[in-house]
Write a structure and sequence with these properties.
520 residues, alpha/beta, TIM Barrel, Oligo-1,6-glucosidase, domain 2, Immunoglobulin-like, eight-stranded parallel β-sheet, five-stranded antiparallel β-sheet, 15 helices, 18 strands, 13% strand, globular, binds alpha-D-glucopyranose
């Protein structure tokens, strides 16, 4: 029996710019996380994932890393990170950090050297520089689009082109170059030696590109969240698995460390390959994140996610929201539907499933997306798409902590890097902590039960017969979870009520409500 700490853990994603600002500049930072550790302990999560806090010119808010082994001054310094790590560990929280191997920043010293050194130089060989096509090489070397819009190639003054699957300020590294992998291993050791408990690996299905960089099959939707299926040569190339085996060998040199991959590969068997015994311990199951509020869609998402991990050593790993997608409160509020009510039910669904759960900061407060005016938008997707796609800022609004006016205790100043709306007083952690009926109270209770109750133990689920539009399953430990997506009340089955997402007095399970029951 494998009992590693992460197998049933609840991870909390800290989007560092938006979690808590410790120094009053309107941007979240490491000091802010330190100050808010008590919130995370009270919430009852097991581990943190902190998004990139490394030196960066912030063209993709930290996912453009100029030096992977240091701290961006906006976020703090190494001493601050060490203090955060020590305090989190003392509070019983594990800490995992983001690893961004697929690309560096254009401000990384390697890329600056590559630009200076010229075509054919060893400096250029760490990236994917190529000559263009067409008479003067004036056309990009292939037809690949950037996932942020526009071509995946930019031309430099001497006429060569370089590959960037994301923004031009994020040049892709060439993983066939031995120094690239060696440097990644050095970065891993740098943070592991400091004591981090693991990594979230960015674009873990990237890194490897096919020999000769052939044209891809043109696809309608090639964006960040597209299904990078067969014919999309930018992602999920077979040789990526050798990179994962190298990553795993480094991790295995340290006790109890883990890595979770961001793998946007929807085919169950292809995704399962990343979870072989000598590769990643976990891969996000994004199927819950992409499923509508619909019983059949959610059931399919759950079945595929469980089928993916069956036959691998990995548990399932459930995600409802993250910094790249509309938040689920907003996704579920189509028409007149009450997204918050559905989000409460979804929380009980996510936390009843076997395996690992990832919460995104603000999930526990029921934060919705916020429509920002054009001039406030910061995501590179907005400009790269020719201002046709608004990007991901709406789900990255700073977390409201206390008080009744912006910035609600997030910062000592009212104006924040993305503006916070009026009227969020009732959404703050402070207001919700005092209300037993709040989203925060629901999360706290659910997480305490999940940690303490044998009914929530055991791998796998057994689907139970249920009325049309109702999901019902039992965990091996005995917990029964029902979610009513039928749009109308259904009879509440026998059993002892453990927790409900909405009022269930009167013997029925109302629409958009989830319950946890035991045999009683
Ligand atoms: C991942 C991150 C996303 C980032 C991209 C490029 O998808 O989650 O935020 O923009 O990688 O690094």
């Amino acid at each position: 029996m494998n009992s590693s700490w992460w197998r049933e853990a609840v991870f909390y994603q800290v989007y560092i710019r938006s979690f808590a600002d410790g120094n009053g500049d309107g941007v979240g930072d490491l000091a802010g996380i330190r100050a808010r550790l008590p919130h995370l302990v009270d919430l009852g999560v097991d581990a943190l994932w902190i998004t990139p806090f490394y030196p960066s010119p912030m063209h993709d808010h930290g996912y453009d890393v100029a030096d992977p082994r240091d701290v961006e001054p906006v976020f703090g310094d190494l001493a601050e990170f060490d203090a955060l790590l020590a305090e989190a560990h003392a509070a019983g929280l594990r800490v995992t950090v983001d690893l961004v191997p697929n690309h560096s920043s254009h401000a990384h010293e390697w890329f600056e050297a590559a630009l200076a050194a010229g075509p054919g130089s060893p400096e250029r060989a760490r990236y994917l520089f190529r000559d263009g096509r067409g008479p003067d090489g004036a056309e990009p070397p292939n037809n690949w689009p950037s996932v942020f819009g526009g071509p995946a190639w930019s031309r430099v003054p001497d006429g060569q082109w370089y590959l960037h699957l994301f923004a031009p300020e994020q040049p892709d590294l060439d993983f066939t170059h031995p120094e690239v992998l060696a440097d990644l291993e050095e970065t891993m050791r740098f943070w592991l030696d400091r004591g981090v408990d693991g990594f979230r690996i960015d674009v873990a299905h990237g890194m490897a590109k096919p020999e000769g960089l052939p044209d891809m099959v043109p696809m309608e939707d090639t964006g960040l969240l597209a299904d990078h299926g067969p014919g999309d040569h930018r992602f999920d190339h077979d040789s990526v698995h050798e990179v994962h085996r190298r990553i795993r060998r480094v991790l295995d040199g340290y006790p109890d460390r883990m890595a979770v991959g961001e793998v946007w590969v929807s085919d169950d068997d292809r995704l399962a390959q990343y979870l072989r015994p000598d590769e990643l311990q976990l891969a996000f199951n994004f199927k819950l994140l992409t499923a509508d509020w619909d019983a059949a869609a959610l059931r399919t998402a759950i079945e595929h996610s469980l089928a993916t991990v069956e036959g691998t050593p990995a548990p399932a790993c459930w995600v409802l929201s993250n910094h790249d997608r509309p938040r689920h409160v907003t996704r579920y509020s189509d028409g007149n539907a009450d997204g918050t009510r559905r989000a409460r039910a979804a929380a009980l669904l996510q936390l009843a499933l076997p395996g690992v759960a990832y919460l995104y900061n603000g999930d526990e407060l029921g934060m919705p997306d916020v429509d920002l005016p054009d001039e406030a938008l910061q995501d590179p997707i907005w400009e790269r798409s020719g201002r046709t796609e608004r990007g991901r800022d709406a789900c990255r609004i700073p977390v409201p902590w206390s008080g009744t006016e912006p910035s609600y205790g997030f910062s000592s100043r009212p104006d924040t890097w993305l503006p916070m709306p009026e009227g969020w007083g009732p959404l703050t952690a402070e207001a919700q902590a005092a209300d037993p009926g709040s989203m925060l109270s629901l999360y706290r209770t659910a997480l305490a039960l999940r940690a303490g109750s044998p009914a929530l133990r055991g791998e796998g689920i057994e689907w139970l017969p249920a009325p049309e539009g109702v999901l019902a399953f039992r965990r091996p430990g005995g917990l029964v979870c029902l979610v009513n997506l039928s749009g109308a009340p259904v009879p509440l089955p026998e059993g002892e009520l453990v927790l409900a997402s909405s009022d269930v007095t009167g013997g029925s399970l109302p629409a958009d409500t989830a319950v946890w029951l035991t045999a009683g």
